[in-house]
Amino acid sequence: MSKGQEISIKVDGVEARGSIFHRSEADIGIRILWPYQGFSTGLHIPYFSRPYHSFLTEYGVRTAENLLKYLFELSLYMKTNRIFIELQFTLHFHEDDYLSSESQERFFGSTFPFAVPIGTREDVLNILRSK
User: Fold this and answer.
1) Phi and psi torsions of 17, nearest 5°
2) Which of 2, 12, 46, 124 has the maximum number of C-beta atoms within 10 A of its C-beta?
3) Cα gap 86→92, rounded to integer Å
4) Rounded Cα–Cα distance for residues 102 and 71 (Å)
C-alpha cells in the first residue's frame, strides 16, 4: 500500500473506500472517498518510536484501515446527527468567528461524543460553512 493507493474496508457490513494521500516512515494521511467525502486525517510517529514502528510496513496498512474506519464513523455521525450539529454550529459560531480556538473547543467538545483531531476539524467546519 503506497501513496495514492486506494484502500477498502467493511464497517458494519458497509464498504468504505479511501485513498492514502501521504505515506512516509513517520507520517500517513488518508481521505475517505466512499460512501462519504470531504474528510481526511493523519498520524505522525515521533522520532523516538521509529525504531519500533514505521508507516511503510504492515503497521502502516493497519493504521490506514483504522483511520478510514474513523473517518467513516465521523461521516456517519455527521449524517445521522445533522440537525443537532447544525444547531450547535450556529450556537457556537453565531458571529462567524470560525478561527477562535475557544469557540472551536466548545463546539467540538459539546457536539461530538469522540475526539475530532485538529487536522480533521477544518474539514468539518468547511462542510458546515458550505451549508
Assistant:
1) -120, 145
2) 124
3) 10
4) 24
**Residue 74's CB: how many other CB atoms inside 10 A?**
21
Which letter does DSSP use for residue 56 in this model? T
| DSSP summary character for residue 113 | S
Write the DSSP symbol of residue 93.
T
pLDDT tens for the chain, 131 residues: list them.
556 789 999 999 999 999 999 999 999 999 999 999 989 999 999 988 877 899 999 999 999 999 999 999 999 999 999 999 999 998 888 766 777 788 899 999 999 999 999 889 999 999 998 87
Letter for the amino acid at 121?
Answer: R
- Read off φ and ψ for residue 16, nearest 5 degrees: -120, 135
Task: Report the C-alpha gap between 29 and 14 in whole angstroms.
Answer: 22
Q: What is the dihedral of CA 87, 90, 91, 94, to 10 degrees?
A: -170
Q: Is 38 in a helix, a strand, or coil?
A: coil
Question: Residue 130 corresponds to which cell in the numbers above?
Answer: 458550505
